[in-house]
Amino acid sequence: MAASHNISRRDFVKLTTAVVGSIIGAAVGLPAVGFLIDPALKAGGKDAWISVGKLADMLVGAPHPFSFTLTRVNGWERTATNYGGFVLRRSEDPQDILILSSRCTHLGCQVNWREDAQVYICPCHDAKFSMDGEVLGGPPPRPLDRFQEFQVDADGNLQIHVKGG
Amino acid sequence: MWQKVFQWLDERLGLNDLYKAVLDRPEPKGNWWNTLGSASLFLFLLQGATGIFLSVYYTPSPDHAYDSITYIMNDVTFGWLIRGIHHWGATLMVLVVFIHMLRVFITASYKYPRELTWLIGVGLLLATLGMGFTGYLLPLNQRSYWATIVGTQIAGSVPFVGEFILKALRGGVDLSALTLQRFFAAHIWMLPAALAGLIGVHLFLIIKHGESQFPTKED
Predict the structure, then answer these.
(1) What's the ipTM?
(2) Best label site of A140, B25, B77, B218, fewest CB within 10 Å?
């Protein structure tokens, strides 16, 4: 049989077993993996415009804290998550505004504004950020994130554009 | 290379002896009725695997049990398939275990030296029925609820200690969050542990004694 071009019985059985086994393995394995990682494949929430307060109430040159809650449907329940940030009016110009997220860029804790030291401090790992969000010390890899898109509506409310996760 | 790895393992684990004892043991002439024990074992493993997967999404809380099942059925990728296999596998397992028991009874395989295998089998049957009873409540729909009301009420009809048994099963007088939680604990921890242990001894005895000869006309 060694010189024959035909496949030997043993090799045929091996090949068939491997092919059929792989098909069965995939038929069982792929649904199983899909089942486990399903939430990671789903889209996040929707984009939204969130009002963070009246522009007239915000002092120029001092960070104005704000917070809002976003609700997303996760599985069988609605999950409300709190977000926060600071509005910094750099001048009277209603377009000259810096809006920072209070989520520390290190590992996601909430930073607080310290009036006495004029810095944002993260309570988790002592990160320090300047008033406009630049890193002054500690482990963060980049400045505080900014809400780039904002608008002031007819009633004078400052609104920020929040993207769904 | 692989031969060397295998040899190294074999020297320490005795794989060859294990193979000879477990899979290469002498058997009486094959008969399809003799495969029902293996079928029960396969179904147990299948229920275990699909059950572990379901526990990724299921939550045993009265507020969310039904919602989580609905989520598994409608939203999770292949959730309908995993739960479907678990649901029908449960029914099939009770059926196969029962026919397996009937076969052993009819062929008189429970006689010496296999009485202990039979007794452990009785324990396995009861644990399997327990799995069915506790699992039935978990979706917490109307049928689950009333089936458990009736089932626990039947257990409560025992003279003298019935009241106590009913309260112990339900975790109180009413069918409540405590009932769901303890049925869940029994369903995923206690009964599977009991089943796994009993199956271990059951299999050991089968390998030790070998399978029984099918009775002939003379018997």
Answers:
(1) 0.83
(2) B218
